[in-house]
Amino acid sequence: MIIGGLILDIHAKASKNVRAGTTTPGQVTYISGGVSRNVAECMQKLGVKPFIISVVGEDMAGKTLLDNCKSLGLSIDGIRKCKNVATPVVSNIFDSAGEIATAVADVQAVEESLTAEWINHFRSYFGSAPLLMIDANLHPLALEAACNLAKESNTPVWFEPVSFSKSARIRSIVKYVTFVSPNEAELIAMAESLSSLNLSQSLQTLENDGKKMNVEAIYEIFKPAISILLDEGVKFIVLTLGSSGVFLCFKEVSSLTVIPVNGSKSDQFEKGRTGSGQLALSTVEKPKFSNNYHARYQQSGKKILHFNCLHFPALPASILRLTGAGDCFVGGTLAALCVGKDIIESMAFGVAAAKRAVESELNVPSHLSLTMVSDDAKTVLSLMKRIDSSFH
To answer: How many domains would you assign to the chain?
Structure first.
């Protein structure tokens, strides 16, 4: 189950450097987007049918998004249609290298019309959902309502922070969250919202020296922020690092238990070895990786926290556009989790889906398939040198 915004993306790509105060030649396209919608499309193309709870206005953008959902085979039963409400739209301006130069977002409808009352209409759906993904575009009251329903049915919650400014909304729901999937800036924003620490120096260090840093050095920078979220009860931090890959951070294996989930079926995926009713770190009893970084960290006046971070390397790719990579990573990971793959295998599926996303002009590749993602996922696991032994 996915609760969040459906957004029409306007992509304006300049053919040369963008200059302020004048028009720049380029190409403008309209693409169905929004973090939640992109994740849903990715999951659908990988053989898992998510149920979306969202909102659109009765306008051209809303009709475009609903038609897109129908064409993909996604249910629109959970999408509220509101009169006198503007469908969320984001206008992205890309530079000639394909990076976002600036963007303007109008997503007020998600906060005002995707209400707790609307979410509660679908209470019965939570009992059969393997996981719930919520994005931070939701109003805090709607986030709490969704998390309470998830708690009633033992449904793990995946929180997608969406942006630096909205990441702090985790504060009221952190006790419900199983997974978070921030980038570096979003991780810092969440950690600062949950503590009295000022961690902005971590981002400044990364901005100044990031291109010269190896993975181990990046990991050291973010240990304090990681420890704060884990200490607050988040089970897994999925930290996306762009071309440097992804970190999966969690407390020591000895402190982990399997997480109960509801069952799911898929026509395309082969059922994972974890069986129904459990979400496990790994189906290997005591997995070991050559790139597992163990941490022993103590905040002032607090107990020592032990945790691990596994590094998933990014796969080589011919990059066309970066905007859908994070969403496809989450979509690929959730699709695998929903059919019983363990967390490590599922993360590899996510990395593989992200590779395909950056090689496409769309938010989600039009020809994304389970076969190509499965092959790439095997490559990711091979690069991680997985062997059956104990963590070090």
So the answer is: 1
Summarised one tens digit per residue, pLDDT across range 47-84 is 999 999 999 999 999 999 999 999 999 999 999 999 99
In a domain, 171, yes or no: yes
382, two tokens: 């091979």
3-state secondary structure 159-193: EECCCCCCHHHHHHCHHHEEEECCCHHHHHHHHHH
3-state secondary structure of 268: coil
Alpha carbon distances (Å) from 61 to 44, 70, 85, 139 = 22, 14, 11, 22
Record the tokens describing residue 257, joined without a space: 């238990």
**Integer Cα distance of 252 and 381 in angstroms:** 21
Rounded distance between C-alpha atoms, residue 154 and residue 150, angstroms = 6
**118 touches 53 (CB < 8 A):** yes
Residue 14 within any structural domain of the chain: no
Contact between residue 328 and residue 42 where contact means Cβ atoms under 8 Å apart:
yes
Q: What domain range includes position 58? A: 35-85+106-388
Cα-based angle 171, 145, 47 (whole degrees, multiple of 5): 95
Over residues 133-172, the pLDDT tens digits come to 999 999 999 999 999 999 999 999 999 999 999 999 999 9
Confidence (pLDDT) at 244 = 87
Cβ 108 vs Cβ 86: under 8 Å: yes
Is 333 part of any domain?
yes
Residue 279's SS3 state is strand
Residues 29, 362 contacting (CB under 8 angstroms): no
Instruction: Give exposure, 97-135, as e/b (b: 16+ Cβ within 10 Å).
Output: eeeebebebebebbbebbbbebbeebeebbeebbbbbbb
CA–CA separation, 344 and 336 (whole Å): 10
**For the chain, where are the alpha helices, taking DSSP H only?**
35-45, 60-72, 108-113, 116-120, 140-152, 184-193, 200-209, 215-231, 325-338, 343-358, 370-383
CATH number of residue 68's parent domain? 3.40.1190.20
Q: What is the pLDDT of residues 22-49, one digit of tens each?
A: 888 888 989 999 999 999 999 999 999 9
**Which tokens hold the place of 123?**
């209470």
